[in-house]
Amino acid sequence: MAxxxxxxxxxxxxINDKLYLMMIGVLTVLxxxxxxxxxxxxxxxxxxxxxxxxxxxxxxxxxLGIGIFLVLYPFHLLNVDYKNKVMSLMFASGVSRNAYxxxxxxxxxxxxxxxxxxxxxxxxxTLIVVNKEMVLEIMRSFMNNITDFNFYGLAINGIxxxxxxxxxxxxxxxxxxxxxxxxxxxxxxSMIVSIITSFVxxxxxxxxxxxxxxxxxxxxxxxxxxxxxxxxxxTFLGLQALKKQDL
Length: 247
Known about the structure:
The protein is mainly α. It folds into two domains: 139 residues; 102 residues, no CATH class. It is 87% helix and 0% strand. Helix 3 crosses helix 7. The longest helix has 35 residues. The chain is globular. The two termini are 18 Å apart.
């Protein structure tokens, strides 16, 4: 089976997952309502206590819901083939494990980005409708205080961050064979990576500061390098584990 056909099959399967589509719709509506209530509370200057309590409660629930969903959704996309026993059939039909690994990550990233755009777009539109002047002021301030280097550097690091998180989660799913314990393994991986990157960054910042140089210029390139190392390490670990599994 060609990689292009596998990729189309993965996208079709993800798009037609009705339960998660309903969850995306509910959380998006909750996010839009929370955004509208927050702007209304700011506009009323805190005079309505009931509105404040309602806004806080709904914002907390919608924020927690979206945060949990953004971890569970990619985990679901990655582990569903383990649960449905599809992987053994695909590999038996001649699909390369390397090709499957690559397609699975690309399809998961694409679906996550699309879901993120939908879940952010509706609240953003709500924000514009409720208070267009504030949105325009925030955008002007953002454009005036960010340089081209910072913008492109942040964009590249953001993309690499999404890829590295997906690769790390994929590795956790493979190592646990799609079990729920993969989420806890992913959290453990994230903590270890965070400690290591913070330690390396701190050492380099101190070394550069001791050489009477400014460390600001190397922070974004350092983050880029660390993200690439993380992607390479977890890709290798995930692929090796997948190749050794008897499915």
